[in-house]
Amino acid sequence: MSTHPENTIPALEEAVRLGAHMIEFDIQLTKDGALVLMHDTTVDRTTNGKGKVSDLTLAEIKGLDTGAKMNAKFAGTRIPTFEEGLAVFPKNVWLNCHLKGGAALGEATAKVIEKTGRKHQAFLAAMADQAKTARAAVPDILICNMERQGDSMAYAQETIEMKASFIQLLGKGVVPTEAVKLLNEAGVKVNYYHDETPEGLRRQWQAGVNFPLVNDVTTAMPVAREFGIEPLK
Length: 233
Hints:
By secondary structure, this protein is an alpha/beta fold.
């Protein structure tokens, strides 16, 4: 959400309130093995602290303010754990869990998804090594292939062959309609990043993209309604 501090409880709650069908967030491991929501490898940009997430303990991370840098009204906002983030969500929204780390992160995240009863809605946006360890721990965990993030037919075919449930295509100005058609026919849901102009959103839905990834849900929803897509209740 562009209106709220990224990867925070206020941002997740706002996305739910607006009726987003899919909510994306980033997951990393702390020094002591806790799963937290954070995009960058360091806390420098979004908090009042400094250092790599992987070099900080959960207690140290919980002591940081991750809201004030964006807007004073969010002062005191803390970095949530993965489980704290999950607790915000109803059971009918797709959860796009973008893994920011190595293979061990895939296993740890998959286990939490299984433990919390979210396997039906949460998927791992993962590289091949992360997907492998996640599936070793939880064989039926849902995977979004992020190995290439391109738009080629080869990437689409590889995604089908690895039996991923989702793919993330990286936009290059033109939606790859043939690749999207192949993925649609194989039952792979297509996420597309990134063009959230009204014209771009229309092109994506017309081509068969399932989920355009956007920062501003309020801008996307009027276009979504043109295609019969209403906010989730």
